[in-house]
Structure prediction request, 352 residues.
Amino acid sequence: MTFRFLLLSLLAFSLPASAALRAGAAALDITPLEWPVQVIGNFGLTLSSQAHDPLMARAVVFDDGKGPVAIVVIDSCFVKRPVLDAAKRMAQERTGIPADRMLMSATHMHSGPPAYPLQPTDKEGRYTAYLTRQIAEAVTLAHARLEPAEVGWAVREIPEELNNRRWFLKEGTMSMNPFGGKDDKVRMNPGAGSPDLVKPAGPIDPQFWIVSVRSTSGQPIALLGNYSLHYVGGVPGPELSADYFGEFARTMEQKLAPGNPKFVAMLSNGTSGDVNNTNFVTPRPRKAPYERIREVAGRLASEAETALKTVTYQRDVPLGAAQRELPLRYRKPTPEELDRARRFVDQADLHN
Prediction:
């Protein structure tokens, strides 16, 4: 099994100056058109008949005269490679941007529809096709909006919203894991305020990065953020939501360019595999649905506004793209674990 990583860099210092930068951005709705849909990100089957807020595919395209690059952030729990490869091929045919110069990622919120189910229903298959077209169209529209631009970036430290969710526990307190084993060295999500907590099993990445793009006349084009927080949650089970990623984007669009549909803010997910918003040491009181989402997004938006005041913009910014595939080893279930899983599946029809 391999995972593909695409690294796109705005290199202002290490490369010679190039032609003046151009940039364009676009956002297209990817909310399902047919209901109900399955909600991905929960244990068990949850069906939704509505979205609390729109799901979007947000794109920004840069061109330095030597080769364009595109970055797309998709409001989805996950989008598998065949969907992204198809969207890239479609966008390449329409814009000429090479597929290997496109960086596409899902936000990984836990309140979205399936983007590539293993055994799709006709409705799910239609949604996958719709999602593919909308991703490609977002790149196409952003490319059509290219205009002379300048770019700058900044970073802020925001550790307060980040918590490693894997913990060492006191000896003898480790419970059985979902696979029936009792030999785990750490436990995920051990319970906020648990008296058995010893220490987190790993670090957090507190850096919040922003890349600001504006026209040469000073009008905002795009704002890209990156923060290493898994998701926030607090979404009622039967609703879809873009979580704090979508809330941040909408907040920044309202703050920086109200009423301008061509300005696009987006927030991608960073190194957050074992990081969530639960304070395990000092539990917070339970909040109303979407309240924590608004609080976290609002905090990031406020920090982004502060960071923007420090940004120095540049127009001659060469673009670079590099890609390679990394083969990774992964753990396979034992025969005993497979047998146990089969017994669970045989006990109930998971689709009822």
Q: What stands out?
A: The two ends are 32 Å apart (CA to CA). Residues 26 and 262 are 6 Å apart (CA to CA).
